[in-house]
Amino acid sequence: MAEREGGRESRDRAPAGATASRPRVPRLDQPRPPRRRMLPEWDPEAFGRLSEKIARFLGTGRFIVWMTVVIIVWVVWNIAAPDVVRFDSYPFIFLTLMLSLQASYAAPLILLAQNRQDDRDRVNLEQDRKQNERSIADTEYLTREIAALRAGLGEVATRDWIRSELQDLVRELETERTSRPAGRDADDR
Fold first, then answer.
1. How far apart are CA 78 and CA 70, in angstroms?
2. pTM of the shown model
3. What pLDDT digit, counting tens, does each position of 109-128 carry?
4. Is 189 strand, coil or helix?
5. Which residues are CB-contacts of 106 (< 8 A; sequence separation ≥ 6)?
């Protein structure tokens, strides 16, 4: 016992010097080793998917037809069968218990499925909102670009404008040439 306590004391004290080792720090670049759990684990997504499948089935006409068939067979069996094979007599207490049990499980499963659908709808709505914001930003950008192009085109010389300016210059030159005296043209050269 004394050796164990002595060993604990030597481990508890921080070693000194060049041979001292650092206390063990978990590495952040590696996952932690799995811990043992006392309770079983389940995948919440798998449970949610199962509840959605059950809720979808409970909301179909097929379920209503099958439930009606089961109840009719139950009642007819317990009324028309011999007393020896009947398992639920006239007030049908066991049938009421079974229907209550089915309803007590169906309601939370349907609510769970609705909550999951609400979560999906919320995510889709957020994605749609972001997409709409991007579309509006793109539309505003393109509107500004088109306005800038229109303003730039207003300053650009078009072919018709250049043609009319050249025609005006040709007319001016012709009028100047015709208005000058003939002798003066020779002196200018």
1. 12
2. 0.49
3. 889 889 999 999 999 999 99
4. coil
5. 54, 55, 58
